[in-house]
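Why do we care about 3D structure at all? Because function follows from shape, and shape follows, mostly, from sequence. That is the central idea of this module. The next example makes it concrete: a single protein chain, its amino acid sequence, and then its structure expressed as tokens.
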Amino acid sequence: GEAFARGLQAYQAHAGALAERALAAAYPTLQELIGAASFAGLARAFWHRHAPARGDIAHWGAELPVFIDAADQLAEEPYLADVARLEWAVHRAQTAADAAGGVFGLEALGGDHATRCVLIARPGTAMLESAHPVVEVWQAHRAAGPDRFDGVRQALAERRAETALVWREAWGVQVASLPKPEQAFTRAVLQALPLVAALAVAGADFDFEAWLI
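And the structure:
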């Protein structure tokens, strides 16, 4: 009866607000890009399509970039989905397991089995290849000053592609644009390929000694 209807209405309202808060925590740049009102509608629509399957709401939202790709209302801004992918990588890095500081095992590179060594990145390290200037967009939204978006406008006008590297450093997450010579090697490292295979994929233009230093 009426009590059930009121309870259901309250639950639905709470679920919508929870969806918005949870996604805003993981996708703050996306929220700024499309505006709070549009983001709230997006969060509620996403909740209905992809309801949480785990009790920890912090793990919910991984499918949002694909959801954005399929949204006709956002088709005019094709870079939004990749910005969301970058933000999810940042979110995962923020909640990744802690790792001991420093670099260990370098002495193995001077041994007889150096070519079979596997370089292991810290937990949360990720690489995102995009046809859009996602790093420029992400960094601009964390900068200050009236001209902070000038570089973004230029990069979008040039249709500049960027490959983002995300890693955890102490308590903070870093995001940087990965230079072309390092992209193939980094991809191989994140795939846990042996060093000799990673260097072969990287090609002659890659300077391993400079990268290692």
